[in-house]
Amino acid sequence: MAEQSGVTLLKRELCDDSLTLYSSRLTEEAHLIDLDGQEVHRWAYPQGETWHYAEMLPDGHLVAIIKEQENASPGMIFELDWDSKLVWKADVAAHHDFDRLDNGNTLVVCREYVVDEALRPGDLKSDVILELTPGGETVWEWHAHEHVRDIAELVPVTFPLEFRDWGHMNTVESLPHGPAAAKDPRFRAGNVLFSCRSIDTIGVIDKETGKLVWAWGPGVIDKQHMPTMLPNGHILVYDNGLKSKRTRIIEIDPPGGEIVWEYQADPPESFFSPSRGSNQRLPNGNTFIADSDSGRLFEVTPDGQTVWEFLTPDLMKDGRRQPLYRSIRYPRALVENSR
Question: Model-level pTM?
Answer without folding.
Answer: 0.97
